[in-house]
Structures are given as structure tokens and as C-alpha cells.
TrEMBL record:
Domain of life per record: Bacteria
GO BP terms, alphabetized: cellular response to osmotic stress
Molecular function via GO: mechanosensitive monoatomic ion channel activity
Keyword Mitochondrion annotated: no
Chain segments annotated as transmembrane: 20-40, 69-89, 95-116, 137-157, 163-180
The protein's name: Mechanosensing system component YbdG
UniProt keyword annotations, A-Z: Cell inner membrane, Cell membrane, Membrane, Stress response, Transmembrane, Transmembrane helix
Domain Mechanosensitive ion channel MscS, residue spans: 182-250
SUPFAM superfamilies recorded: Sm-like ribonucleoproteins
Organism: Cohnella rhizosphaerae
Amino acid sequence: MNSIEKLLADLGVASGTSVYLANAILIVGIAAVSLLAYYVTKKIVLRIAGHYIRRNRFKWDDYILKRKVFQRLCHIVPAVIIYSFSYSFPGYHGLIAQGVAVYLTIVAIVVLDALLNALNDIYTTYEVSKVRPIKGYIQVFKIFMFIIGGILVVSSLIGQSPLILLSGIGALSAVMLLIFKDSLLGLVAGVQLTSNDMVRVGDWIEMPKYGADGDVIDISLNTVKVQNWDKTITTIPSYALISDSFKNWRGMQHAGGRRIKRSLCIDMNSVGFCTPDMIERFERIQYLGEYIREKKADIELYNREREIDRTMPVNGRAMTNIGVFRAYIDRYLERHPRIHQGMTRLVRQLDPGANGLPLEIYAFTDTTAWSEYEGIQSDIFDHLLAVAPEFGLVVFQNPSGHDMRSMLKPEADREKIALRGY
């Protein structure tokens, strides 16, 4: 400062003006040096470091570079330069030092924030992150970090000890609990979800209350994001997964088979005993030949031993077309290449109702892929709907417009004939 003032005095500048002009020149010089140092650090040093980081065999430092941790550290350089030159302004040294302290505190918070984001990115590269996500814990740590950083900034500005401000926070605890209610509930929910392994990233969950039906793509402190099958995203509060019920399909995916549970409704008017011609025809069906022969011999032996009069169909035992159809479905599923044979497989009748007699197929496919599962299920029922008439059975459906036209057509034809005079 003295050198600049002496130089200005030698140039003929008045002594009163030279002081202000020297201060202005020094401030501009410090700003120029700070900006130059920042530019050199960011554009040259950081570029060299980034080139080395991208070319080495480690991957964790790439995430640190991606989150711009080093770029934010560059802000420390101008702060150090400004603090070093603060002694040139004896009357303002304390104020400049205070401002630099506040600036460095903010830079430290920003750097830690970026570093925590990089830490979460590194952690998500490991498979354990799907089972034990840490994003919620990092967000909680960030909240405390920002609170402490804010206290340090305010204490630096007012020139008071941070402990004084911390002691005052106790009186505001009720307000703090109200402000961070969702975060606290989310933290508790996150701990329970993780410790009980209730949901993971990648799980297929179904929660009709919130319109969620799809894969979990993110678990954070306050929310769980679900990408539905129509590619929309549903955001669910974390604590809702604890307080409300939801369905997790992870067990089905790990089991390797997805359940088919669908009924085929049979018109009960088409159910009846098998005639000898029907039995002879059923015996030629590939899947039923052995079953028909064994069943026929068993029934004949049963009726003969008990001397049952078979002139009446209601006496003794006899095969029914729906019973043979059930046996056919069971053997068809047993030989189906896409049905999981290690899981439950059965064909059963449900209670008869207004829509006929439900014949339920309960089996598991050998895949959990949605498109393949739907294709396998459709192929099975396509086949069963087509072969049901071969057993003398009629699949039930409510009368359609076509059925009504078919019923009314003979009457319409008779009316036309009467009008023509025939």
C-alpha cells in the first residue's frame, strides 16, 4: 500500500486522492490475481487432474469428478489470496477475515454436499445398494450439515460463539420437529424398510391406494419412486409403506415361476355322462388313451363286484364329459413345455354360479417375464376353448346381439313368407 501511494505521489497525485486511488488499485489488483488464480486452477490444473482421473483404472474417482467436487474446491484459492492480502487493509482486516470465514464455510458445505452425492453414486455401483440403500441416511446427514453450517455462518456474521446459538435451538425444538416431521417419519420408515428388507430398488410392488404398479427406481429419505408399466412415475411417501399395505412381487421373481389362476366357465346344460361312442373317441386322444383305459377298467370292476344295474345311468359309477375334460387339461399342462413342473399344478371346479360351472386352472409358468407369461397363458386358453366342444361341452357366455338375431331370424322368415301369401 505504501509503495503504491509513493508511486502515485511521484506521479503528482495529491496526497488525499492517492490514498483512495491506492486502495482502489490494490482492490482491483487483488481481484485480478484471485480471478487469474481461480482460472488457472480450474482450467489448467483441474483439466490435467481430470485427464489423469479418467485414464486410471479406478472408477470411484470418476464419480467424484462427475459430481464436481474438485471444481468446487477451486473456490478456496481466491479466498486464501484475499485473506493473505487482508493485512494491507489494517482497518478492515477483521471484517475481511470474517467475510472469508463465512465464504469458506459455505464452500465447505457445498464441497461436502457434492462429496456425499459422489459417495452415494459409488455405493449404488455395488449390488448391496439395492438391499441396503443409504440415500436416506445421506439426506439426513445433509440436513444436520446444513443446519450446523448455517449456525456457523450466522455466528461468524454476528461475532458470537456458535454454542450460544446452539443453546437457543433447544427452545425451538418443537418448531424444528414440526418443520422436519416428514423427514423424521421418512428416516424411521427407511430404517424399518431396510432392516426388515421390505422393499429394494428394482422390486415390483403394487399399491392400489397410490396408483402404483411397477418397479421401484429410487428410495430416498421422504419418498419412494415407482415407475409404472405405462412409464408414468408414482411418488409414495416412505412412511406410507410402513403404515399401509402393499404387494411385493419379489418372491415370485425369485421363485422363477408366475402363477396362472384363471377359470373357464362351462354351460352346465352341456354336462352329462359319456356314451360308449364318446369313450371310444376319447380313447384315441393322445393325452387320454391310457387314462381312459385305466378308468374304464376300474369302473367296470367296481360295478361288477357290486352287481350294479347299469341299465339306469344313475346307478353305479360312470365317466362324465367334464371329468374327462378335467383329466385332459391336467395331462395337457403336465406335458406343456412352458409350465413349471416343480410348482403346484391343479385343475378344479369352483362353485356353480350364474355364469355356469367355473373350471379353474392353477399352475405356474417357467418364466416371470410379463410378455412371455401373458403369451403362455393365452396359448393355453386358446387351446382349451377350441377343444372343449370335442368333449361335448359348451363354454358359457351371456347372449350377444348375434345370438338374439339368430333366435329371431326363423320368426322373421315366417313373417316374410306370410306377407308374400305363401
